[in-house]
């Protein structure tokens, strides 16, 4: 049984007194007399304490191999729970042990402890003893409790902030001053020029995406929000000229995609739409709508994973028209088809969507719809009869495609 004066009880008392993760890691580091750090579930460093000031220049993220986590081993304080990793810093190899902090089947974070120091003459640091490992286990549960509490608080704050960003993007706010006052309380910089991105993740793992988002862009923290099954990122672009802005955006996006790939995400399946820069927060809704349009149009016309609205050519002029005019256009083009589907209980509109999605290729589209190619040809012929458009003509196809996208955007909103 753990002694009441031991580390476990000390850390529990610290928690009861409102002390957080930095203090707990400091206390563990002092007892072990070696560097200790704590990361979140995606290996982003949250807290680091080094009692010897070894100047370990660690990256923001620690690259460690994936490990199989087992709550039974964790709770039983089994040696199987301790894993080994090495980091090369300034040409020297530093060995660490690390312990996953598990709540059920979910890992909330990791404790990392330096095993030995490579320059043995400058620091007499012996390998971790059995007692040291017991000390790590003693600290694990209080650290897990603190991480869990921080995670729950963060989740509540995220939901509140997501609602705040949604109101901004849909022009639902009292005043510009009220926006800046609330943003300031969270340390957000929404002054000056801004830009919106939308990110589409097929697996909907937006928690991981938010946790690995780069912390800085143009000296300000990116702001993220989960809206309409997409991750929306708001960036402050004050002072960035057009050429430098494009370079900075590409670097930011590539860094983000690389991190997603490190966590098993398929880069080719991730889609990003980027709106134009706007002069103030009250215009941010425009950049957001442009980012959505850029992604939707880019999927078909550019076949790219990263799509800039500014590079959409004539299409961007079409989609900057007033929403009512776009809706009227969509109704003129697709209204007869919608009415026919409703009256005859058919799914011609869905067949049209799939037909365009598969680049008008009969063979691929028929497989996707699980119908014979001749059946699909008959459907296409009926669609042309009902709408009056010839889907072999580029100008007709562009009208139909734009009308479909307007319809889709209306559903998102």
TrEMBL record:
Q: Which domain of life is it from?
A: Bacteria
Q: Which Pfam families match?
A: GGDEF_2, HTH_30
Location of the CdaR GGDEF-like domain: 175-296
Give start and end of each PucR C-terminal helix-turn-helix domain. 348-405
Name the InterPro entries on file.
CdaR-like_regulators, CdaR_GGDEF, PucR_C-HTH_dom, PucR_C-HTH_sf
Gene3D superfamilies for this protein:
PucR C-terminal helix-turn-helix domain
Record family assignment: Belongs to the CdaR family.
Q: Provide the protein name.
A: Transcriptional regulator, CdaR family
Q: What is the lineage of its organism?
A: Bacteria, Bacillati, Bacillota, Clostridia, Eubacteriales
């Amino acid at each position: 049984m753990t002694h009441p004066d031991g580390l476990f009880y000390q850390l529990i008392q610290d928690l009861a007194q409102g002390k957080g993760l930095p203090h707990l890691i400091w206390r563990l580091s002092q007892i072990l007399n070696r560097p200790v750090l704590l990361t979140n579930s995606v290996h982003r460093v949250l807290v680091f304490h080094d009692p010897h000031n070894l100047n370990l220049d660690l990256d923001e993220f620690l690259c460690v191999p994936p490990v199989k986590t087992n709550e039974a081993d964790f709770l039983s304080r089994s040696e199987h729970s301790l894993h080994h990793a090495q980091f090369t810093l300034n040409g020297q190899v530093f060995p660490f042990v690390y312990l996953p902090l598990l709540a059920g089947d979910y890992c909330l974070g990791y404790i990392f402890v330096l095993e030995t120091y490579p320059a043995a003459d400058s620091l007499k640091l012996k390998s971790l003893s059995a007692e040291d490992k017991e000390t790590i286990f003693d600290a694990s549960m209080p650290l897990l409790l603190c991480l869990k509490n921080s995670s729950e608080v963060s989740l509540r704050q995220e939901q509140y902030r997501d609602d705040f960003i949604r109101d901004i993007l849909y022009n639902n706010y009292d005043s510009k001053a009220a926006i800046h006052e609330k943003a300031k309380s969270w340390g957000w910089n929404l002054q000056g020029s801004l830009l919106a991105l939308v990110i589409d993740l097929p697996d909907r793992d937006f928690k991981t995406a938010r946790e690995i988002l780069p912390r800085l862009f143009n000296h300000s923290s990116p702001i993220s929000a989960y809206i309409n099954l997409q991750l929306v990122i708001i960036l402050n672009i004050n002072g960035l000229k057009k050429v430098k802005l494009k370079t900075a955006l590409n670097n930011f996006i590539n860094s983000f995609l690389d991190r997603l790939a490190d966590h098993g995400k398929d880069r080719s399946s991730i889609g990003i739409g980027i709106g134009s820069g706007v002069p103030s927060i009250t215009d941010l809704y425009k950049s957001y709508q442009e980012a959505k349009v850029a992604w939707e149009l880019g999927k078909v016309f550019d076949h790219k994973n990263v799509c800039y609205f500014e590079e959409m050519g004539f299409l961007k002029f079409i989609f900057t028209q007033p929403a009512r005019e776009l809706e009227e256009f969509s109704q003129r083009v697709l209204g007869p088809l919608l009415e026919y589907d409703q009256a005859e209980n058919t799914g011609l509109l869905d067949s049209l969507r799939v037909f365009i999605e598969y680049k008008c290729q009969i063979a691929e589209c028929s497989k996707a719809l699980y119908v014979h190619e001749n059946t699909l040809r008959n459907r296409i012929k009926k669609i042309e009869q009902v709408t009056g458009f010839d889907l072999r003509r580029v100008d007709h196809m562009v009208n139909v495609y734009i009308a479909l996208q307007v319809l889709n955007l209306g559903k998102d909103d």
